[in-house]
Design brief:
This protein has about 240 residues and is an alpha+beta fold. The chain contains six helices and twelve strands. Strand 5 and strand 6 form a beta hairpin. Helix 5 runs antiparallel to helix 6. The two termini are about 15 Å apart. The model has no long low-confidence stretch (mean pLDDT about 95).
């Protein structure tokens, strides 16, 4: 399977920096608290200096959402939503050890991190503007269609695995207890995004290798090198 951002995304968002990791052998029995807590502490330290909306990482995503015609105070990127919840309600409750770790990393860096169960992703995955025909499954089991021009993660089978780019992932490819094969994607648009995404990927790679000791690959994507080949398990997508 090939993961990539469409050329239109690199053209419209030349400041984009992308980090990807492919992890096999995930299980839900790992204990991630010791790895996640330092990241959460870093997020709290940043919030002690001001609101999440003041962070350059979040401001860059707000500008991107506005450029898509999305009201950024109504639909927030995933990292802003996590930081807002951390500030108002404390750390989110545990969901799955991999999600808990990635959420903690996302909060520390204020960078959205998507985690997709590759069993439910089709023969390729492209971040591109939607044409409006794609189907998106909510976590509540309802079907939606991204608006034409809205950036989504789309597979050739016509399924959208995200709404409003980094706002919300699909319930179809969400990580579950029986998930084994995942693609992790971090995306940022702020001025120091390239350096920050590289550090995020390296820190996350180290934690994942320590917790699961899995087959693990990672890469940084650019307009000149926009594709990442995923050699996934033989299981067919759902």
């Amino acid at each position: 399977m090939l993961f990539r951002h469409a050329s239109a995304i690199w053209r419209d968002y030349p400041q984009l920096s992308v980090g990807v990791l492919h992890l096999r052998g995930v299980h839900a029995q790992a204990s991630v608290a010791a790895h996640a807590e330092p990241f959460i502490a870093r997020a709290r330290a940043r919030l002690a200096q001001g609101s999440e909306s003041d962070l350059p990482e979040i401001q860059a995503w707000r500008r991107a959402f506005a450029s898509m015609g999305v009201k950024p105070t109504q639909y927030r990127c995933a990292s802003e939503a996590l930081l807002r919840r951390l500030r108002k309600d404390g750390a989110p409750p545990p969901l799955h050890p991999l999600i808990d770790l990635c959420n903690a990393v996302s909060m520390a860096y204020a960078i959205p991190v998507a985690v997709l169960d590759l069993r439910q992703v089709g023969s390729a995955l492209e971040v591109r503007p939607a044409d409006g025909t794609e189907t998106y499954l909510t976590f509540g089991g309802e079907t939606e269609h991204p608006e034409p021009g809205e950036v989504t993660y789309a597979d050739p089978e016509g399924r959208a695995h995200a709404r409003r780019w980094t706002n919300r992932q699909s319930g179809l490819s969400a990580v579950r207890d029986d998930t084994r094969d995942v693609l992790i994607v971090a995306e940022a648009l702020h001025a120091s995004a390239a350096d920050d995404v590289a550090r995020l990927v390296q820190e996350l790679h180290t934690a994942l290798a320590d917790l699961w000791q899995p087959p693990l690959r990672h890469a940084l994507l650019t307009a000149q090198s926009p594709a990442f080949e995923v050699r996934r398990d033989a299981a067919k997508p759902g």
